[in-house]
Design brief:
about 130 residues, alpha+beta, GMP Synthetase, Chain A, domain 3, four-stranded mixed sheet, 3 helices
Length: about 130
Protein backbone atom coordinates (compact mmCIF):
# COMPACT_ATOMS: atom_id res chain seq x y z
CA UNK A 1 0.00 0.00 0.00
CA UNK A 2 2.81 2.42 0.83
CA UNK A 3 4.45 1.74 -2.56
CA UNK A 4 1.20 2.55 -4.37
CA UNK A 5 0.88 5.81 -2.40
CA UNK A 6 4.47 6.75 -3.28
CA UNK A 7 3.85 5.98 -6.97
CA UNK A 8 0.69 8.12 -6.91
CA UNK A 9 2.53 10.99 -5.23
CA UNK A 10 5.28 10.82 -7.88
CA UNK A 11 2.78 10.80 -10.76
CA UNK A 12 0.82 13.71 -9.23
CA UNK A 13 4.06 15.65 -8.82
CA UNK A 14 4.96 15.06 -12.48
CA UNK A 15 1.46 16.12 -13.53
CA UNK A 16 1.79 19.40 -11.58
CA UNK A 17 5.27 20.02 -13.01
CA UNK A 18 4.07 19.45 -16.59
CA UNK A 19 1.12 21.81 -16.06
CA UNK A 20 3.47 24.47 -14.74
CA UNK A 21 6.34 24.07 -17.19
CA UNK A 22 4.29 23.43 -20.36
CA UNK A 23 1.53 25.94 -19.66
CA UNK A 24 -1.25 25.88 -22.19
CA UNK A 25 -0.01 22.87 -24.16
CA UNK A 26 -0.15 20.01 -21.63
CA UNK A 27 -3.53 18.27 -21.54
CA UNK A 28 -3.03 15.31 -19.23
CA UNK A 29 -1.59 11.84 -18.69
CA UNK A 30 -2.39 8.29 -17.81
CA UNK A 31 -0.32 5.23 -17.12
CA UNK A 32 -0.68 1.60 -18.09
CA UNK A 33 0.98 -1.27 -16.25
CA UNK A 34 0.79 -4.69 -17.83
CA UNK A 35 1.07 -8.00 -15.97
CA UNK A 36 4.52 -8.38 -17.56
CA UNK A 37 5.64 -5.27 -15.64
CA UNK A 38 5.72 -3.08 -18.74
CA UNK A 39 4.91 0.39 -17.44
CA UNK A 40 4.00 3.00 -20.04
CA UNK A 41 3.33 6.66 -19.33
CA UNK A 42 1.05 8.38 -21.88
CA UNK A 43 1.20 12.21 -22.08
CA UNK A 44 -1.18 14.30 -24.19
CA UNK A 45 -0.32 17.78 -25.48
CA UNK A 46 -2.14 20.25 -27.70
CA UNK A 47 -0.78 20.01 -31.20
CA UNK A 48 1.51 23.01 -31.77
CA UNK A 49 1.08 25.42 -34.68
CA UNK A 50 4.16 24.05 -36.46
CA UNK A 51 3.01 20.52 -37.24
CA UNK A 52 5.93 19.48 -39.40
CA UNK A 53 7.14 15.97 -38.62
CA UNK A 54 10.59 17.26 -37.67
CA UNK A 55 9.17 19.89 -35.29
CA UNK A 56 6.73 17.47 -33.62
CA UNK A 57 9.45 14.81 -33.24
CA UNK A 58 11.81 17.31 -31.62
CA UNK A 59 9.11 18.56 -29.22
CA UNK A 60 8.10 15.00 -28.32
CA UNK A 61 11.73 14.09 -27.63
CA UNK A 62 12.09 17.18 -25.42
CA UNK A 63 9.04 16.04 -23.43
CA UNK A 64 10.47 12.52 -23.10
CA UNK A 65 13.75 13.94 -21.83
CA UNK A 66 11.84 16.19 -19.43
CA UNK A 67 10.12 13.11 -17.96
CA UNK A 68 13.49 11.32 -17.82
CA UNK A 69 15.13 14.17 -15.89
CA UNK A 70 12.15 15.18 -13.70
CA UNK A 71 10.13 12.12 -12.77
CA UNK A 72 11.25 10.14 -9.73
CA UNK A 73 9.38 7.08 -11.09
CA UNK A 74 11.32 7.13 -14.38
CA UNK A 75 13.54 4.13 -13.51
CA UNK A 76 10.38 1.98 -13.25
CA UNK A 77 9.08 3.01 -16.69
CA UNK A 78 9.47 0.99 -19.88
CA UNK A 79 8.06 3.55 -22.33
CA UNK A 80 7.09 7.19 -22.59
CA UNK A 81 4.40 7.94 -25.18
CA UNK A 82 3.70 11.52 -26.28
CA UNK A 83 0.43 12.20 -28.11
CA UNK A 84 -0.37 15.45 -29.88
CA UNK A 85 -4.08 16.16 -30.08
CA UNK A 86 -6.58 18.69 -31.31
CA UNK A 87 -9.96 19.29 -29.74
CA UNK A 88 -13.00 18.16 -31.68
CA UNK A 89 -16.49 19.25 -30.67
CA UNK A 90 -19.77 17.47 -31.25
CA UNK A 91 -22.55 19.61 -29.89
CA UNK A 92 -21.74 20.59 -26.30
CA UNK A 93 -19.12 17.84 -25.93
CA UNK A 94 -15.46 18.55 -26.67
CA UNK A 95 -12.69 15.95 -26.49
CA UNK A 96 -9.08 15.67 -27.61
CA UNK A 97 -8.46 13.62 -30.75
CA UNK A 98 -4.93 12.29 -31.18
CA UNK A 99 -3.28 13.45 -34.39
CA UNK A 100 0.28 12.16 -33.94
CA UNK A 101 2.00 9.81 -31.47
CA UNK A 102 5.67 9.37 -30.60
CA UNK A 103 6.93 6.53 -28.40
CA UNK A 104 10.29 6.33 -26.67
CA UNK A 105 11.70 3.45 -24.69
CA UNK A 106 13.67 4.34 -21.60
CA UNK A 107 16.69 2.82 -23.38
CA UNK A 108 16.27 5.41 -26.15
CA UNK A 109 15.94 8.26 -23.66
CA UNK A 110 18.83 7.04 -21.53
CA UNK A 111 19.61 7.69 -17.90
CA UNK A 112 18.47 10.87 -16.12
CA UNK A 113 20.96 13.73 -16.40
CA UNK A 114 20.35 14.43 -12.73
CA UNK A 115 18.88 12.14 -10.12
CA UNK A 116 15.14 12.97 -10.16
CA UNK A 117 14.59 13.49 -6.44
CA UNK A 118 11.32 15.37 -6.92
CA UNK A 119 9.28 17.29 -5.98
CA UNK A 120 11.01 20.29 -4.60
CA UNK A 121 8.94 22.93 -6.33
CA UNK A 122 12.08 24.18 -8.08
CA UNK A 123 11.53 25.08 -11.72
CA UNK A 124 13.58 23.34 -14.36
CA UNK A 125 14.24 24.55 -17.87
CA UNK A 126 11.73 23.01 -20.25
Amino acid sequence: MLIACKDMKEIMSLDADLKSDFQGSYLGMHEVRSPEMVWTLFLTFKQPVDTSEKSLAAFARRIGEYVRDSYAGYPKLSNVVVDFAVYRSVGPISAPQTQRTFQFTTNELGQPRVSPQRSTGVKRAA
